[in-house]
Amino acid sequence: MEPKKINSKKYLYSFLITVIIFSTAIFLSNYFGQKKLDEIRNIQDKISIDILSSETQFSLLEESLCKDLGTGTLSTELANLENKLAYTENERGVNDPEVQTLKQYYSLLEIKDYLLMNKISDKCKKTPLSIIYFYSNNDCGDCEKEGYVLTRLRETYPELRIYSFDYNLNISAVKTLISINKVENKLPALIIKDKIYYGFQSIEDLEKAVPELQILKEAQNASSTTATSTKK
Amino acid sequence: MFDTTNIITCAFLFISLNFEVFLLITYFENRLEIKKEENFVALGIKKYPAVTIIVPCWNEQFTVSKTIHSLLSLDYPKNKLKIMVVNDGSTDGTWEVVQKFKNNPQVELHKKENGGKYTALNYGLSKLSTDLVGCLDADSYVHKDALRQIIPYFQDKEIMAVAPSIKLWKPKTILELLQKVEYGFGIFTRKMFHYMQAVYITPGPFSIFRKEVFEKLGPYRHAHNTEDIEIALRMQKNNYKIAHAHNALVYTVPPKTIRKLLKQRIRWSHGFIKNATDYRYMFFKKQYGNLGMIILPMASISVVSVLFVSVVSIFNMLKSMINEFIKIQTVGFNLNWSSFNFDWFYINTEIIAIIGIIIAIGTITMILMSKRMSEGKFDIGMDLVYYLALYMFIAPLWIGKAAYNAIFSIKTSWR
């Protein structure tokens, strides 16, 4: 019997084709990864412009009526940005330098938005509806659950502004926010109307802590009933 | 961005993709050959050689008659086909059942002490008077054209054995339909191995050998209960050619329960692992051709990679299920379709996902080609859906158990 032969060319070709397919996949993956980062940056720019615009509007209308300056002037993109950032963090890893930079920028935007909202509420004598939330990616068993609760609250009450901060994020503005509010490293921690709550808070707990939510809910229900009744 | 699990997964994906590409190149190189071969077989041959089919049986009283009847109805000259029933010390009524064939000039009845399937085959070989010999397990049936499809291959003096295509007997349940796809895929890969001269299994049901294989290389061995892998590897080691007659159809009865299926597969996988270990010196040796350079190494790597990738995927799935459970527990179930917007941003574009999809497309292509080869049609049915959805969860069970048994030297049994 003749010894067997192998066709080395076929081995080479199959290897080369595989390398080409793999490189294409790596290229596509990077391309889409970059596209996603670009999208996040775009949203951040949009928010930044929104804030700047609101601030400018605020300065211009210093003496004007509050009806021109409702909370409606605040950016509506924060929730969208947070979702996408969380997804990216999950996909690329917490330690990815791009993710770190984006998170820092996002935290700054949140603080600016928070300050602006307080200013507007102050001027118009309204109670600001906001929750500041500190979490950590390590050693915080309840943070994930708290995240679900806050996401659900945000879905139910779009008027409620939720600002989430990574407690360990290395950026001085966040550190200042932590120190002026004297937030201890017992996470999750929530600041609602200058009061700090430590540990897991359920939807019911939070609805109790912010009674205005109840009013919002009733208003929402009323408007949806009117909407359906007008439809009839 | 990359952790160890991802790197290992990527390495396995690279190897699998490389093998898939290799198989597809082989297919495109030889696709005209397949048609040529079919035409050649259809011509038939002038003088049919005499063939003996050994039917080893051990406690097969319910199926043995049907098996013998299927052999008697083979479209082959009656005086050239001998059926040798070897009763391997059955304790049930097998011997009484086969007595009804004792006056049939084509059937020879033998009985011996129980010693295992390979001893029954060797007993048959020792009584052999024809140049060609095959065997048919008592749980399998042959298509009436099977032998006519196989014999023409022996016109090539170098071909020493011909393996048939195995199909499932009337698959109906989900478990059987899933196996149907697997067997169909097996027909495709075996044909590709045929073109690479690297067939490494001559399946128990109805592989036909030249007598000189056993005269020169010795009889069947116990070979960890998979003598059909061992004899093929022994032939390959001695550069004996093995062909695959893809249109020679043999039907085998699928295991009825998942337990029996697992047992059968554990025996196969365990047999492969042990025999591959016994013949490990063939790995990466050019003199053993494609078998040594790619087929055996790939088959071995696939044992590890199927286990690894499945365990990682199942683990990830469990993790997200637990997360989903915690979420529902925390905030309740709320399916809010109105807030659902399609956003391309959330499509997974990681390398592993992209490569995984490419490999899946390649696999589906090969399954469809194997369907066309074995059934003459090109469709996507529920069987394919079951296979793609469930195989990943079932296969690791037997591969894992077989690997465990092989490592800790636990013997597998026939049933």
List the helices and strands and how they pair.
The complex is a heterodimer of chains A (232) and B (415).
Chain A: H1 8-60, H2 78-92, H3 97-123, E1 130-135, H4 143-156, E2 161-166, H5 172-180, E3 189-192, E4 195-198, H6 203-209, H7 212-231
Parallel strand pairs in A: 1-2
Antiparallel strand pairs in A: 1-3, 3-4
Helix pairs in contact in A: 1-2, 1-3, 2-3
Chain B: H1 4-43, E1 51-57, H2 64-72, E2 81-88, H3 94-98, E3 107-112, H4 117-126, E4 132-135, E5 140-142, H5 146-150, E6 159-168, H6 174-195, E7 208-210, H7 211-217, H8 227-237, E8 241-252, H9 258-278, H10 289-331, H11 351-375, H12 382-407
Parallel strand pairs in B: 1-2, 1-4, 2-3, 6-8
Antiparallel strand pairs in B: 4-7, 5-8, 6-7
Helix pairs in contact in B: 1-10, 1-11, 6-11, 6-12, 9-12, 10-12
Strand content of chain A: 5-15%
**Low-pLDDT windows of residues of chain A:** 228-232
Please give the order of strands in the largest beta sheet of chain A: 2-1-3-4
User: Low-confidence stretches of chain B at least 5 residues in length (pLDDT < 50)?
Assistant: none
**CATH homologous superfamily caption of the largest domain in chain A:** Glutaredoxin
Number of strands of chain B: 8
